[in-house]
Amino acid sequence: MKQTLYEKIWNRHVVTELADGWTLLFIDRQLVHEVTSPQAFDGLRLARRKVRHPELTFATLDHNVPTDDQSVIRDPVAKAQIEALRNNCKEFGVRLFDIGSKELGVVHIVGPELGITLPGTTIVCGDSHTATHGAFGALAHGIGTSEVEHVLATQTLRQKKSKTFRVEYAGRLQPHVTSKDMVLKLIGEIGTAGGTGCVLEYTGAAVRALSMEARMTICNMSIEAGARAGLIAPDETTFNYIATGDRPFAPCGAALEKALAYWKTLASDPDATFDRTLTIDCDKLAPQVTWGTSPGMVTDVTGVVPEFDQVRGYSRADVEAALAYMGLKPGMKITDIKLDTVFIGSCTNGRIEDLRAAAAVFKGRKVAAGMRTLIVPGSARVKAEAEAEGLDKIFKAAGADWRYAGCSMCLAMNPDQLKPGERCAATSNRNFEGRQGKGGRTHLVGPAMAAAAAVAGHFVDIRTWK
Amino acid sequence: MNPFTTHKGIVVAVDRANIDTDAIIPKQFLKLIGRTGFGQFLFNDWRYLDNGQPNPEFDLNKPAFKDATILVARNNFGCGSSREHAVWAVAQYGLRVVIAPWRKDADGSRIPGFADIFRNNCVKNGVLTIELSEAEVDQLFGFIKAQPGVQMTVDLPKQTLVLHGKPEQVFKFEIDAGVKDYLLRGLDDIALTLEKEAAITAFEKKHDVQLAAR
Ligand code: SF4
User: Fold this and answer.
1) Nearest to A128 among B82, B111, B207 (CB)
2) Of A18, A423, A433, B40, which is the most exposed, with the fewest CB atoms less than 10 Å away?
3) How far apart are the C-alpha atoms of A249 and B213, rounded to whole Å?
């Protein structure tokens, strides 16, 4: 039987078939953070249940942690939530990467860098960007809190098989064009519900050429296309990432050899059939910038804000509402959009490579007058690595604000927020109304584009900018 | 969980596509660690003015819709974050049913009315999500505009919606058989799964998480 990668992983995790086409699927890893877990642990307590596999459960703090000074949490409600996770982890015997530890970070950055995320595994987390882990050929689903509780109690998830959707990225990226642009382009093409009910598998020469960090950026935003998960078949790039570096939870020695033999089988068979396929040509792909309040409202940096009725997948009313919120008018050049804040970080673009790309732009330059520039590493490890390379000095010399690790202004649950009307170039994943603060306006871009915008004060085409 | 069989109530419309979970419940309310008290924050930024007063322009605040228990919106409802707080807000506000249209993409693919995680979370909380066609949802919007406060009966066993307007209008809907059964019986997921304990244990014996973990 010809199988897709999704089907191969699925089949290896079927515990039993349930009625009406539902399946009980075994979950190899659950990642936990403070926001979506307290009610799940409460549920366990109420029903006098235990965590079935604490050793397969990993907790971190990310959404609420302050990124300026992590020694005190001034917000009492945030503090209570953080304390709740600490207490729950203690009570149920779950490992926690706490504030101050070397492993702290955004859950989707921590999993891969510690070797928790491995090919062929099933991974869940009460967070929609769990799709990130698919970059390793892991089947990774974002779930709700009731399901978090279900997995804690049973190590399984009730699932119905998703449709399969192959996105082939053909050709080669031009210099300065990144995987962020690849995924934004896709969402512009298929819309934010285009992948609903599907698992996306990303293939093609342009994907093969990407580093693990860059692959994670694509898979991360699968959810912005509505997908249940994103997948990239593991290859030498994946195996090297896992085998090199300090990844305490990854197999090594003989166990690694055995794992590798299995991991090498993890690819869709050449003639496997997908429910849907799409090809995107990367040769001419330009840096992408979102102009609206949905990630599918996106265009080339060389483009203009579109006319109300010229946007695929959005009604005139949608576009009017979005442009009114964003304070933009049709016909305006993207490069004429002026900014007052730049945010570089998040589980989409908060990894070391992203910071290197930003630092390359900032080196020897200064941020524009009045520009608030937040650079937030995705994890404590990323922070340490960046500092070892001297990137922090480049950022500070440029006038940017170098922070501690956390989600920060990606969702603005901590004090890092936009004020009403403020306009931000962000390397994160959502430009929803109010996402970065009530009334705040978000434009999604890649890290070098964000850095260049911080220097220029408005968007520039990083390919030609001097 | 309370079973869902039939429900009669006022239907209210929010005429927007891609209503994301940040809009359904903004992040500042995600810090609560309990499972209750979210209903007052449903659609917070749309429902309240900056001074904290209810926004009279927002339909949920209008007298005709004050007691609405059925919501109809546009495509891709509940996209974005996986926060179940969004569904708790919907359910605790008193909404039992949400209706959104599926639509056809340019290449003929069917785009579901609800985002996957949101829809799943609804099932766990006894909230029924119903997909109709775009034309049917347009009809509903027309009715609600012409007859604000119109009631609807949702019959899950029969898979019908009856809009008690003038004239009365009946819609049929499709639903996953497993989800239907689950809602009708108001099942507890975890207890149900634990009935498969033998299968889980057998699986754990043969499954090598070591392939993946040290
Ligand atoms: S960085 Fe943003 S998207 Fe990622 S987990 Fe944190 S809040 Fe969610």
Assistant:
1) B82
2) B40
3) 6
